[in-house]
Write a structure and sequence with these properties.
The protein is an alpha+beta fold. It has three helices and four strands; from the N terminus they run βαββαβα. Strands 2-3-1-4 form a four-stranded antiparallel sheet, with helices on one face. The longest helix has 17 residues.
Length: 123
């Protein structure tokens, strides 16, 4: 029996926008998903982080993760709104299968991941 798919949209806002405006964007995108007939499962503010490379002249960005489920139609609506916004400098939506994972409290140690990969290859 397959689980209902869910979607994770990670988007990066310009680092120079005020905190109240960040909340406005978060609410706007949550509402867009809901209006498109989907359900918002979670929204996580990841905070301001340094970008791996300069995007639109910015070296930092405010990361937000939006987890939602639905028939997939909400993704086009959401991404169109983000594409038209001058405050969103990057976005990406990924379709996930299965149940929503529990939030992680810390980073996954790289050594554990590499060791598991090596064991798989050697077996």
């Amino acid at each position: 029996m397959s689980q209902k798919p869910y979607y994770e949209t990670m988007y990066i806002l310009r680092p120079d926008i005020p905190e109240e405006e960040v909340e406005t964007h978060v609410s706007k995108y949550r509402d867009l998903v809901t209006e498109a007939g989907a359900e918002v499962l979670d929204t996580q503010m990841r905070g301001k982080r340094r970008l791996a490379y300069t995007i639109s002249g910015h070296k930092e960005g405010i990361y937000v993760q939006l987890t939602h489920n639905g028939d997939g139609q909400q993704v086009a609506t959401l991404e169109r709104a983000m594409r038209l916004s001058e405050d969103v400098i990057r976005y990406l939506t990924v379709k996930q299968e299965g149940p929503l994972p529990a939030p992680r409290t810390g980073p996954v140690p790289a050594a554990t991941t590499e060791a598991a990969a090596l064991e798989t290859v050697e077996a």
